[in-house]
Amino acid sequence: MGRLHLARGRYVYQRGFAVVEDDLSRAAELLRDVAPNWYALTLVAQGTVDTARLRFEDAEGRIQSALEMLASSGDLSALASAWARLADLRYKQARMEDTAAAVAEAEPYARATGDPVFLSMLLLMRASLAWASRDLETAKATLEECLDVTAHAPFLPSRSGCHSNLGTLFWEMGRPDEARRHWELAESHSRRRGEDVRRATDLMNLADFYPPEERGRILREAFETFVRFDHTRNMVLSLAELGSHYIDVGRPDLGVPLLAVVTEARRDGTVTFPPPAAAGLDASVAEARARVPEDEFARHWQVGIGLRLEGARSLVRALPSPPGNDRPDRKP
Asked: 218-267: per-residue pLDDT in tens?
């Protein structure tokens, strides 16, 4: 029964955090004294949810405890899983050197098992590290290896991640047609798996290919999905996209406050982003400053400073979806 609750607890993006956390708590109670390795894997799963909910200290404690329990177990799959989740935690904290160290620990275990679940996760992480250091060709080659690894396991969430990251990489490389193809493949995969959070992210990536009114609708629906699942990081990313969108359509009074909320959430430590995402957010703010008159920008920015994330939720729900001229430089 404990293993059943653990299995159910892994479907975070289909079932939501609250339900999953309940399943994992029950799994921990049932497995603690009877199945040490499975209990350790439950701690890893709980740490994964903590990471997604930005409870980094709790995540670190649980995953490190699991690693101590598994150190002499000889369970290569469990060790690969625990080290991979620790790498993901450290990446989300923007601790690049620590991420690389965790990936280096995990990858031999993953390759020894031959399990595409863990190996594809680590390839995604290794690609992200290369991307963060601006080695785009290595990032691209690593993501393509990830697709090869998951070719016979198309059900894996990491396959969607490979396509999504390749789409973003191609977009950054100025290859929008290839970007769109990979984002559409990612969205199709997420939709078939019923993973609402991943699908909302994929649709958010594709929003630039749609006319302004449709783009605004997609971004607002993505934001609401992230709110529903209490996914703060993606919520902040969608606020940045919405802010840029409303500036695009001539509504800096709506767009600039949202960008201010994003900046404050980063400044006060509510969210952290690794270098590629952080650079994109910085660029969005810099572009807004360049497009909006200085006095007007400062006035709207102060409105956003007072909103914070809770106020931003109410603002987004009240936003109009106005028509406007799309931005040519963001279209293929």
From this structure: 999 999 999 988 889 999 999 999 999 999 999 999 999 999 999 999 99
Do 120 and 144 form a contact (C-beta atoms < 8 A)?
Answer: no
- State which amino acid sits at residue 216: G
pTM: 0.83
Sorting pLDDT into bands at 50, 70 and 90, what band is 22?
A: confident
DSSP for residue 329: G
With CA atoms as reference, report the closest residue to 55 among 245, 232, 259, 255: 232
Contacts of 137 (CB under 8 A, 6+ apart): none
Q: What is the dihedral of CA 294, 295, 298, 300, to 10 degrees?
A: -110
As a whole number of angstroms, the distance between CA 186 and CA 52 comes to 20
Residue 332: its pLDDT value, please?
A: 35
Single-letter amino acid, residue 17 = F
10 Å Cβ neighbour count for 303? 17
Cβ 78 vs Cβ 115: under 8 Å:
no
Q: Are 230 and 55 in contact (CB under 8 A)?
A: no
